[in-house]
Amino acid sequence: MIPDTAPSAGPLERRRAGVLLHVSSLPGGTLGAGAYAFVDFLAAAGCSVWQVLPLVPPGADGSPYRALSAMAGHPGLLDPGGPPTQNDDPSYGSWCEQQAEWLVPYVEYLTIRTLLGGTPWTEWEPALRHREPRRVAEVLAEAPDLADRARSEQWRFAQQWRELRVYTEDRGVLLYGDLPIFVAQDSADVWAHPDLFRLDASGRPTDVTGVPPDYFAADGQRWENPHYDWDAMAADGYAWWRRRIARQRELFDLVRIDHFRGFEAAWHVPVDAPTAKDGWWEPGPGLALLTAVVDAAGRGTLVAEDLGVITPAVEQLRRAAGLPGMKVLQFAFDGDPANPHLPAHHEEQSVVYTGTHDNDTTLGWWRSLPDDTRALVRGHLLEPREGMPWSLVRLAQASRARLVVVPGQDVLALGSEARMNTPGTTGGNWTWRARESAFDAALAARLREDSAAADRLAEVGEP
C-alpha cells in the first residue's frame, strides 16, 4: 500500500496547473500554427501541463475512444502546411523498422479496408480476415500507393508531433495523453491479434464492454468493444500492453488510463442485449497487469481515471499500483459529506478537474442546477459571489491535489454549446473547436494570477 502523498519525482513532483484541450479543438484543429500558439498561451498563463484526448485515428463517429488503431496517429490532425514527407530520408526507413510491430499491421489493415470501401474486417473474405500473409500481400500489391500513403502519413505525424514536443519542452510545458482501456472491434489491433480478445469463430465479440446505469446514462453505456482474453495476455507477460504503454510514453510525459476500474472488474454485456443494463461484473487482471504497465511506463508517469462505480477493491488496486486518481468538482455536490470529490477529501496524489471531456461545460452544468444545489455549491466556493465558471476554477486551483486541469471550454467561459461529448449519444460529439485568438493575452494573465495564488505557477523554460 502506498501513502497518499504524491511522488517526489516525475510530472507530479510539485504543484502544477494545466488545460485540457484536444488537438482537434484548437483553432485550425491541427498540429500547425494553432498548436504552437496554444503552447505559448499555456506558458504565458503559468500552466505547465497540456492534456489532450487520444491522438489515434477515430472511427466513423469521430470518437477517439473507438479508433482504427490504438497505436497510430490521426492523419486528420496533420498540419497540411508542414514539411513534405521525405520517404528517401534514411531516418524514414529506420523509423519504419522501429515501429514495424504496430505499423505493418496498421498499413495492411487500412489499405485493405480502404480498398473494400470501409467494410469491417469481420466481413472480409476468410483469407484476409485471418491475415494470411500471401493473400494480404496480393491485395497490397494491387494498391501500392495506398499503402505508401498510409505509412507516410504516420511518418509525417511522428515528425510533426516530435517537433511540437520539442517546442513544449523548451517552454516548460508537459504533454498529458489519454489511453482508452479498450480498443475498437473494427481495428488493426483486433484484426492482427484476435487471440488476445474474446471472439467467436467469425471474429465477433462473445460479449462487449460498457458500464451499468450511471450519472451519464439511465440505461448504462454500451461501448461495443471486445473484451480482452486476460489469460492469453498473461501468457507472454502482457507484452501487448507493454508495447502499447511504451508507445504512449514516446508521445507523452504523463498518461491517463481511461476506465481504470476495468482492471479490477469490467462490465460484460451480452452481444444481443438492447442496452447495457443487462450485464455482469467479471474480474480483471488486477495488479499483475498494472505492475507490467507501470514498469513499461516508468513510475510517476501514469494517472488512473477512477470514475464510475468505484469499490474499495478498485481503490485498493489503484493505491497498490501507485497511481494518482481523479477528482471532478462537478461530481462533488450531491449533499453527501463523504463525497470523495469534495475538496476536503482530495488527496495530494490526485488530479482535480472542474469537469472532464464527458461532462457539460461548467457554465452549462451550473445553468442546469436547481436552486438548492446551487446553494450547496456556493457554500464550498472561495468567493461565492464570483460568477461561474471562474469560481469553480479557483476552487480547483486551491485543491490539495498536485495537478489541476481545467477544460479549455471552462477557461473560455463557454456554455453547453461547447460541450465535447455527451456519453450514451452518437451525434454532435467531438466537433467543438475554439475560435481564432480565443486564448489571448488577457486570458493568460487571468489564469496566471490564479495559478500564482495557488502556488502552481510555472515559469517559461522551467522543467
Description:
It is a single chain. The protein is built from 16 helices and twelve strands. It has helices at residues 33-44, 90-98, 100-115, 126-129, 133-142, 144-170, 188-192, 230-235, 239-251, 287-297, 312-321, 362-368, 371-378, 390-397, 408-411, 441-453; strands at residues 16-20, 49-51, 174-179, 207-211, 221-226, 254-257, 265-270, 280-283, 302-304, 325-328, 350-353, 403-407. Strand 1 (16-20), helix 1 and strand 2 form a beta-alpha-beta unit. Helix 2 packs across helix 3 (100-115) and helix 9 (239-251) runs parallel beside helix 10 (287-297). It is globular and about 70 Å long.
Write the layout of secondary structure elements.
Elements: E1 16-20, H1 33-44, E2 49-51, H2 90-98, H3 100-115, H4 126-129, H5 133-142, H6 144-170, E3 174-179, H7 188-192, E4 207-211, E5 221-226, H8 230-235, H9 239-251, E6 254-257, E7 265-270, E8 280-283, H10 287-297, E9 302-304, H11 312-321, E10 325-328, E11 350-353, H12 362-368, H13 371-378, H14 390-397, E12 403-407, H15 408-411, H16 441-453
Parallel strand pairs: 1-2, 1-12, 2-3, 3-6, 6-9, 10-11, 11-12
Antiparallel strand pairs: 4-5, 4-7, 7-8
Helix pairs in contact: 2-3, 3-6, 9-10
